[in-house]
Amino acid sequence: MINPYLESILIFAGINIILALGNYFPFSAGLPSLGQAGFMAVGAYMSAVLTLKFSFPFFLSLLAGGGMALLVGILVGLPVLRVRGIYIVLVTWGFGEAIRVILLNIEYVGGSGGMGGIYPSTTLPLVYLIALIVAIFSMRLKNSRLGRAFQAVEADQDAAESMGIDLTKTKLTAFSLGAFVCGIGGALYAHYALYVEPSNFNFFLSSEILFFSIIGGGGVFVGPIVGAIIFTALPEVFRFLKDWRVIFFGIVLIVMMVLRPQGIISRDFYNRCSNSLRSFLLRKGFIEQADDL
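The chain above was modelled as a monomer; its predicted structure follows.
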């Protein structure tokens, strides 16, 4: 029987991994977003409403939460993705705050009082099963046509467009994929915390999700996973610092930006490790072609 405290940390770490991977898709296309908490809120509230008020099965409400976040991502992305650079950060931040304010004023979902009594359906194996599925999809995406389009858009949007890449379609795909995954993460959170309120999905949460990619390294899918694990574990390790933890994390972030701006797992580091593993598996006969991994 696993310790309840440890189980709680592991579940939140798994949810953070899912959220980090949800941020990886827009980040890999050069779209740093501060609106991921908004998509998480959409998924959380959608799933909670369907199970509480309409008695939907949990798995259907989970998919519906992700689907609603995907729809909102498309509706928001169409006008938002016309801007570039720092303006994307500002507009997505505004979207996240707008979602929070809207939820504060909808009495049907509890308003400022939030929603309680949500069914406890999120389990440790389920969280990590979904995290694994999203991680495998992210890994396979890297060398796909769509993944290469994301990389081209991140490197130079004008050059990517001159090569025939549809900028709007590519950026909207990255943005909406991230919204869907964050919606799933929000639904899992709601059915574990059993209570949601608008203040749960604030600017700090969006910043934290973005930091997963910055600290871990947003160039490859492994980076956000590492960042999510670190940001989940460190607050527990340094709990004795109490409110000083915020200052400590700020110092860590500054040091990382100065000493290793590419994050803990850089694209070059990942490629070297991947090539070494591929060569080892080829020698041992576990794979037959160089591109099997």
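The two ends are 36 Å apart (CA to CA).
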